[in-house]
Amino acid sequence: MTVHNFYVHLLVTLLQVGLISTSYGKEAPRTGIFIDTLKFGNGKTMKFKAQVPMKLPKEKTLGLILAFHPHGGNENSMVNWPSKTFLERQKVLNDYVIIGLKSRGPKGYKEHLGDWEIADHDPSYQTFQWAMKTYPIDSRRVHIIGWSRGGFMATRFIWNNLKHFATVTAFAGAHSPDWTSKSLGGYPNQDWVKLKQSKGTSIDYSVDFSKKSLSEYLPKIRGSEVNLSEYLPEFYHVHGDSDYVIDVNLTRCFTRELGKKGLRYIYRELDGVNHAGVFQGKPVNFVVNDDVFAWINATRNKILPLNVADRKTLAKIKKNISTMASTPAIALIMEVARIGGHQGGKVLIKAFDSKFVDVRIAAVTSGYTTSYGPAFIAKLGELIRDPKKEKDVRFNACHVLGTYAKWRQLYAQKILTDTVLDPSLSQYIRVQLITAISRSYEFMVLGNMYDDRKIIQTLVKLLDDPDGGVRGYAHIILKKGTNGVGKFGYNASHNKSERQAAVLLWNKWAAQVTAPLLSDNFVKKRSSEIPGALRDGLQK
What we know:
- By secondary structure, the chain is an alpha/beta fold.
- The chain has two domains: about 30-190 and about 205-210 and about 230-300, Alpha/Beta hydrolase fold, catalytic domain (Rossmann fold, 3-Layer(aba) Sandwich), CATH 3.40.50.1820; about 310-515, Alpha Horseshoe (Leucine-rich Repeat Variant).
- Helices cover about 45% and strands about 10% of the residues.
- An eight-stranded mixed β-sheet has the order 1-2-4-3-5-6-7-8, sandwiched between helices.
- The chain is globular and about 75 Å long.
């Protein structure tokens, strides 16, 4: 071999070695369904099951769901049901990476409370970080979900990781420092439910996040009161009031404190449903889980800023969308919906200046699947009241607000409950508003009528409305809260004086069913039978 050839050969060899070195650890990420174990420092590991789209996007657009299993479960427990099942039903499965985590188990635990303890926090966080580095995930579309002990974990893990997650979902479980190895004789002998039943009293659980300062996550705005719900993660809780494993009061106490703190939460209490029942394939579970995963898919992280690419995209859309032709404008509206959040909502308002009605309709209807924040909500309120706007635009504005109200965006609820009482609006619009309000009501009658009691109070007020058609429709909706039985002698065609006795009975009923869940006056509302409209929607 000549000297020249030797150096050529050596150079090629070095380049090959360099290529191998730079590509080490950067092999194509696994896709499809698989189980693996990650190994971290100090002997920590995390076994997990993943469901990953077969084809990965070039940009970071995927959502991520981290799932914590119940006591005795494993990495399989939360992946297929509910996560995969209900993302498929929303037709967005290929937009998500789902990772079911496996708790460390009793070995090495110090609290002895069952699956998921403090020892699991670091491996869970490192697995989250691994997923973010491995897959093209949008950091504003990351969510955690847990059932039972997994619900304990999700609602404890979040407080040191608020900036990373858009939503927290907990089925039949929520964290309280009261539930310790020493409480009630120690795990596994403690039984909060039996203690509650034997004493005939409620247990008021303490919640440790109530004293936590959240100011570091809020913008510094002089002279303005900052609404925490517009900046921090949102919570969705589901619990059956006949739970024989974990006391329903645990979730009631947790959500009560979320409300006091000013954090947005949704709490679906299910009358007559036990611990396992919140996860079975009954109609009520399909209705609630469809709502859970539609809400997850619609919600974005409010703390993290937009990435550079998304900021540029929104700037371009804001500048051009009002003057563009329909086809490219509608394509850009889809891109705004992907970005979502209050940033997307402020930009999307510009689409209502388009001269093309299909662009304006596309803008408003994108709100069915994406939450856009208070500026967009305010715009919908304006559209509803403007008789010059197209009927289809106003119709959809009503029902998008109904979706947001159902997800306890209180500004949307206020617009609906204030506007529906305005007799100057057409009967058509007011009927649409009542229908929009009924979306919240139909979930309330499953068990929790307290949190959104303004909805019920508004419907009862409408029983005395000047418009007979409005009165009658409000009565039809209200009857769903009494299994259709509690008419109280009301007849919408009667005059005001003839209606008064029945209206008084409806007001008395409303006061009873909207008593606080943790008060001595709380009464069960109804069975967990599905209200008609929800059942009909499920069968479509």
